[in-house]
Input
Amino acid sequence: MPQTDEKIVVLIPCYNEAKPIGLVVADFKKALPTAEIYVYDNNSSDGTIAVAKSAGAIVRTEPQQGKGNVVRRMFADIEADIYVLVDGDNTYEAAAAGDMIAKLKTESLDMVSGCRVTEIQEAYRPGHRLGNWMLTGLVASIFGRRTRDMLTGYRVFSRRFVKSFPALSHGFEIETELTVHALELRMPIADHDTAYIDRLPGSDSKLNTFRDGVRILRVIVSLVKEERPLPFFGGLAVFLALLSVVIGYPILTEFIATGLVPRFPSAILASAIMIIATLSFMAGLILDTVTRGRREMKRLAYLSHPAPHDD
Output
């Protein structure tokens, strides 16, 4: 465990985790004895609050349902130099936290992601593994491949990451937003392999492979629209322009040959689609300028805080 005078906090969002939360708090107390441990309860009905308090955690509540809402509240409320964010389901290796913090400080990073490594099928189900691989690959193809586990719930952050992060998501999509924030601002980040452990008996995952996968995919599309507007709307413009050409080409050739326009509805449709394509491209150009200004503002907010460093 790295020796430091910096304030370290462990942030644990929780919803109905009464069975594992005591072990999670105890393990992180052992791994990071100088850290303050916060458990943010999200409307649990199974005694999570009582168990967390008895384990020695500082317990607070967030009434708006969803992990994204909880993370936004934690990042806004807590002042620290280094933040450890981990799920309260006892599936992550607390002993790795010291090495992750040391890596953050030694390399002056802003985020270290705990990449899950396990051979236990029940711990990391094939559906979740496949979905993570697909979504991570999709984000990498758009924003750059700099992490192997985009959806991990175990991360270490610098203060400047946390205080510049807008946190707009409501649920499990927050993991995608965290990753894209780092990639978009080109922050120094790294991965660190950590063991992924099976849940305790009677402790069920809150993640639904298909429902939450669709939500995450929707967030990725939204982030592409907001952070890459020119490729997004430009691509749409190219598609519409090609569609317009396909519809209008036979009409144009016939008009050149005969001087007649026999199918007015198709001609009008082709013209309208081409106009929409042009407007889409212009919208992309305008929004690209707006996005550049937003990115500069986020970068300035990020740079207003000192970088983590190794004493």
Observations:
- The mean pLDDT is 86.
